[in-house]
Amino acid sequence: MISTEQNTPLAHYQQLLAQVPPEWQAITQLHQINDNLLISCLDGTPTQALQSKNSGQSSVSVSIILAGKGEVRFAQGAYLTLAPNTVVFMQNNGQVNGFNYFAANQSIRIVDFRFSPGMFNRLIGTQFNFKGKIAFRLQPLSV
Length: 143
Fold this sequence. Notes:
Elements: H1 9-17, H2 22-26, E1 28-34, E2 37-44, E3 50-56, E4 59-67, E5 70-74, E6 80-82, E7 86-92, E8 96-102, E9 108-115, H3 117-124, E10 132-137
């Protein structure tokens, strides 16, 4: 059952999604696992660039960039360049403003896991309080 509460990862992501062009909304699938976990999948080749200024609530997310290149940043922060094999971990407490940019006519494949802060803390067994983003590149496995 999908929650109607406004303080869930689904409600927050729907607010963010409402701020992007319809073509980007169309390539996004939302999978609500429960009130505390949302998985979104972006898969397509939009012909319109994504340039958005977003506002978001407290959340914890892990985004895996499988295809596509772009940039994201918090307001007043430096740009983080996104490319295939990039994983972005983001945690914020309270309202945060940021910017996203992805060029048009490129394959976009992104998987994003959104956790409520409480669920993430239960998963790791402690209070997590990191402000900002960590990004790293996935390395191919050698066999």
